Amino acid sequence: MTDFFTRGGIRSPESRRGLVPMIGVVTAILLAVAGCSPSNAVTDSDVGEATAVAAQPVLPTPTDTGPTRQAAAQLPAVPADGTVTIEEGAFTDRLDINGLALEQGQRPSVTAQLGNAVDVSELIVLELQADFYDASGRFLGSGTATYADEEFADTGATSLRHGTGQHDEAFEVNVRSDRQLPGAKSAILTVPQLVNE
Question: Which helix (DSSP H) or strand (DSSP E) does residue 101 occupy?
């Protein structure tokens, strides 16, 4: 019978006996480094449980602290009186925003017609922010408006008919200032949140 240990240079029985514990030590080190232990192993039932959880939409709640975006204190170029511009963001390319208008007065507001540009899917939540500026381009204040599908509008959002956006139909939005800003001459509209089905 051929002794296969002779090729690797291990010839004595004493050396062979030391090999078994050494293999055990190396295996233990590899398992520790890889983080593999029976308690951490992922089983087929774990995978089934993880995929069974349905994704939930992000919804506004009464405890929301509001948008974290800071409006520019001074515009670098003063827009013409009555101008509303759209600040490009993560969601603006997903919306068709038309008919922008600034309604001046004690509490100014921005109005527009919104529709889906890319996703012809039901709108779940839409949050808008308008920042208002005076004739010299100085920031005066902001206003926010939240729109939600009627199924999710119990959080104080303006309710939209179920299916809005699904057939690429536009709807009107109105973002009024949070306080009196009679000197507002221009505004910037942003879209901090948009959730589609």
Answer: strand 95-103
